[in-house]
Specification:
2 copies of one chain form a homodimer.
Chain A (H helix, E strand, L loop, with lengths): L2 H31 L2 H8 L3 H7 L3 H25 L4 H18 L1 H9 L11 H27 L9 H30 L3 H16 L2 H11 L1
Helix pairs in contact in A: 1-2, 1-4, 4-5, 4-6, 4-7, 5-6, 5-7, 5-8, 7-8, 8-9
Chain A binds a DNA duplex (30 and 30 nucleotides) through helix 1 and helix 3.
Chain lengths: ~220, ~220
DNA sequence: GTAGTAAATGACCAATAGTCATTTTTTGCC
DNA sequence: GGCAAAAAATGACTATTGGTCATTTACTAC
């Protein structure tokens, strides 16, 4: 009598196929220009059915965004499992974030949308919490590496690990965002390669956070 | 026969009073929840009239945002006219940006909305160009100070002035954005004071960009 | 086969950005 | 002041869309 279990699976797979459809539409048109009618049509379902599975268009948007977060988490995890020296790991985190952006621009943009304040009002408590918790796991991964680096005396231990994680993470985020929106403009009008700028700012920040020992590691890595 | 001139002035003042009304509504509800009907009512005009002066709701939004940009420009200008030593000026720029955020949170939020990619599609070319040009003036101000600092050998002259401006500006922007949206969360859950984090990251970055001479100036300023 | 339950539907509603034919106001002229 | 032409303002209307819910369809258990 595995009927209930099967139903559960079917429900889950329907949720997934709705996200598939939503993703297709959101990627093409962005949140404001995507319509629930189009998502429903793409999913080959009636509009009302969508609302049996998701509370609002914004919830659906976040459900798609979560897929992006999961990809990013997995990429970070993969770096951690390589058990590289701490300084190398931090550099790889930055490279990985950039790679994530390049391979998943649509998801990256969604992450950013999540930060606009007015957006949140249309989102259900539950979905919001779900996203926040997931986000947390990324912070934890970075913070853990930093803590480890301090223990190994590669990173200045007068800094707070969480604070350090925030600074590094924020730095990459903004510059990637700028690359996304204004790369050509900066290249053409000011002859600035923002990818170079990103690497430079990461390097400057990282360097200022390292101990002498850490700096030696970094120097060795750059040659 | 100054009729034409007078009409021009009246038209301008009507545009301003429409922005007044729009500002009031946008500040209260944010872009998505503000309606043109409510703005019209606040302005004591018919909705159709708004469209005689602005192409779209988004154009109106940007018109309000420009006021914020002007405030920020004037604050920066004021710092420049004080003709402080370069290192001090850079620190004051950072403080000024923070002050701008604190005194004009509503405007600050609008600046960030401007960066979301889908937003742009509803905006008229003309308004977009107008904003971009204005934005440019802020970049120029920061870049000029940095160039001056390099000439005075306070800032490492192997760095590109524009690149340096981008990095410093971006760093403050993200952290202020995070302060705006997540200050309480970071304070309560992680015991992190993001204002402190902002100051720290500015300091770390600035330090990594200074020459020995510049570092001495900085040290003197911090005591 | 049937009663009862779960899932899906789509016509419908309310809200709202934007339009445009009509009305009101202003201007220039006598 | 009166009047015609131009300019400005109006608000009813349209099209679109997020979300609802009474009804229909499909499935389950016996």
């Amino acid at each position: 009598m595995g009927t209930i279990e099967r139903k559960e699976r079917e429900k889950e797979s329907r949720k997934e196929s709705i996200i598939d459809a939503a993703q297709k539409v959101f990627f093409e048109k962005g949140l404001p220009l995507s319509t629930m009618d189009e998502i429903a049509e793409t999913a080959e379902l009636a509009k009302g059915t969508l609302y049996l599975y998701y509370h609002s268009k914004e919830d659906l948007y976040l459900a798609v965004m979560m897929r992006g977060l999961m990809i990013l988490r997995d990429m970070f995890r993969e770096v951690v499992t390589r058990k590289l020296p701490v300084v190398k790991t931090l550099i790889e985190f930055a490279n990985t974030y950039t790679l994530f952006y390049e391979q998943n621009k649509n998801y990256f943009r969604m992450l950013h949308f999540f930060n606009t304040p007015q957006f949140h009002k249309q989102v259900s408590e539950k979905m919001m919490k779900s996203c926040d918790e997931f986000n947390q796991t990324l912070w934890v991964m970075v913070t853990e590496i930093i803590t480890q680096g301090m223990a190994e005396q590669k990173l200045r231990n007068d800094l707070d690990p969480i604070e350090t994680a925030i600074i590094l993470w924020s730095n990459s985020s903004t510059l990637l965002m700028r690359i996304d929106g204004q790369y050509e403009m900066f290249k053409d009008k000011l002859n600035i390669d923002l990818y170079k700028t990103l690497r430079l700012s990461n390097l400057l920040l990282l360097e200022s956070m390292l101990t002498e020992q850490g700096k030696n590691d970094l120097k060795a890595l750059l040659n």
